[in-house]
What we know:
- This protein is α+β, with helices and mostly antiparallel strands.
- About 20% of the residues lie in helices and about 10% in strands.
- It has one helix spanning about 40-50, and strands spanning about 15-20, 25.
- A two-stranded antiparallel ribbon has the order 1-2.
- Strand 1 (about 15-20) and strand 2 (about 25) form a beta hairpin.
- Bound molecules: zinc ion (ZN).
- Zinc ion binds near residues 8, 10, 27 and 29.
Amino acid sequence: MQRTLIPCPFCGSQQAKLSYPQRCVKCAECGTCGPTGETAEQGARLWNHRATVPAYHPTAPLGLIGGH
Ligand SMILES: [Zn+2]
């Protein structure tokens, strides 16, 4: 059964593919790797979940997050 993967949340590409050895989804367009699951199926689920929540920016200065 083929799980439907939503487009890449970073570049919008439909070229996100489930990578079985790594158990995560990788975008062929920008190279983004989704969260690694315990199984490939879980990796796909995490990818779809992550893409529906606001993008997390690990490089954003802390002062911009939750500041008053
Ligand atoms: Zn991408």
